TrEMBL record:
GO terms for molecular function: phosphorelay sensor kinase activity. Residues 175-251 form the Signal transduction histidine kinase internal region domain. This is Sensor histidine kinase YesM. The keyword Endoplasmic reticulum does not apply. The lineage of its organism: Bacteria, Pseudomonadati, Bacteroidota, Sphingobacteriia, Sphingobacteriales. Keywords: Kinase, Membrane, Transferase, Transmembrane, Transmembrane helix. It comes from Pedobacter cryoconitis. GO terms for cellular component: membrane.
Length: 356
């Protein structure tokens, strides 16, 4: 707003000064002697009317430019815009010249003066020069408009390039994190330890454990680098993953899953649920007397909700936040609705959008 007013003031000053320079160039010295011999009231009237004319001319020129900016783009139809703008500017200044002449006829006669603009208006050459004023104003305003747009476009282009570089780096980091999840030595070691014990105790259970362990690892290897997968595939993976968890931790954790069938074909970043389960297990106790309860369900807002009760560990782990950050970053790359995290004294809740 301030910039617009400053621009109008500068253009008005430019036009006002240019008008007198034009008259000075066109008219001889005798004209100026007669001009300064006019009564003071006549000179003041001429200056004020000329200033009013310049203000109206600038405002009309800027108004025409603003209206045409919405109707005809310089980038799309440059020739049409040039011709249309020139036509409206010429018609506008002719209208102002007629109005100015009428003002001089009224106030000039009343002041008993011979206003210079009656002589200017009688000169076709002078009128042509006056018509050039709004065209010059329009040219300056258009140049400022195009320069501003060019600067804005350049800044946006630079921002897009920076954002693209950031997204590329982010994608690389997420891919690296996904690779770490695939080859997590603790994950492999813990499950192999449990498997060796189960084989000695119950060969059938050991076989089932091996089969589910294979499903989990195959899923990690095949899908962890994908952007999205159907929810029903993630749930199949989760079923195998929870089989490992239950046999590793016993009854210290309970999982409750309630997903609407209408949302099974919606999409979700792969390994999302594993990261949420790992997050719950890492920061909470899992004892049979007071089990960790993890609920996974869908809501009416097309969101997947994971809620667990809080059972803080006596010796807390240092939180890196990489698991949750991985999911949030992946949704940021997708450019969709972002996950929501809610925590109170009793529960920890994560909501992630399901993508259609």
């Amino acid at each position: 707003m301030k910039r617009s007013k400053a621009k109008s003031a500068l253009l008005t000053a430019f036009t006002f000064i240019s008008s007198y320079i034009t008259v000075f160039i066109i008219f001889p010295n005798s004209y100026w002697r007669d001009y300064f011999n006019l009564p003071l009231s006549g000179i003041i009237t001429d200056i004020l009317v000329n200033l009013l004319f310049c203000v109206l001319l600038v405002e009309l020129s800027l108004f025409i430019d603003r209206r045409l900016n919405k109707k005809i783009s310089w980038m799309v139809h440059p020739l049409k815009r040039l011709l249309t703008q020139t036509l409206f500017q010429v018609l506008g200044v002719l209208f102002l010249i007629i109005c100015l002449g009428a003002i001089y006829l009224i106030f000039g006669n009343h002041a008993n003066t011979q206003p210079p603009y009656l002589n200017i208006r009688q000169s076709l050459y002078t009128i042509v020069l006056i018509i050039l004023w709004p065209l010059m104003v329009s040219a300056l305003n258009t140049g400022d408009f195009l320069l501003t747009n060019w600067k804005t476009a350049t800044l946006k282009s630079a921002e897009f390039e920076i954002k693209a570089a950031q997204n590329k780096q982010l994608a690389s980091e997420i891919e690296l994190q996904a690779l770490k999840l695939q080859l997590d030595p603790h994950f492999v070691f813990n499950n192999l330890s449990v498997l060796s014990e189960l084989i000695l105790q119950d060969q059938q259970l050991g076989y089932e454990y091996t089969k589910n362990f294979t499903k989990v690892y195959r899923y990690l290897l095949v899908n962890s680098k994908k952007k999205l997968i159907p929810l029903h595939e993630e749930l199949k993976f989760l079923d195998a993953y929870l089989f490992l968890i239950k046999n590793r931790m016993g009854d210290g954790c309970i999982f409750q899953i309630d997903i609407s069938e209408s949302r099974l074909n919606m999409l979700i970043p792969p390994v999302t649920l594993q990261l949420f389960i790992e997050n719950a297990l890492k920061y909470n106790r899992t004892v049979e007397e007071d089990p960790l309860i993890v609920r996974i369900y869908s809501n009416d807002d097309d969101e997947l909700v994971v809620v667990n009760n809080l059972l803080p560990l006596i010796k807390k782990h240092d939180s890196t936040g990489l698991g949750l950050k991985n999911i949030i970053d992946r949704y940021a790359l997708l450019g969709d609705k972002m996950p929501e995290i809610e925590k109170n004294a009793q529960t920890f809740t994560i909501k992630v959008p399901l993508i259609k």
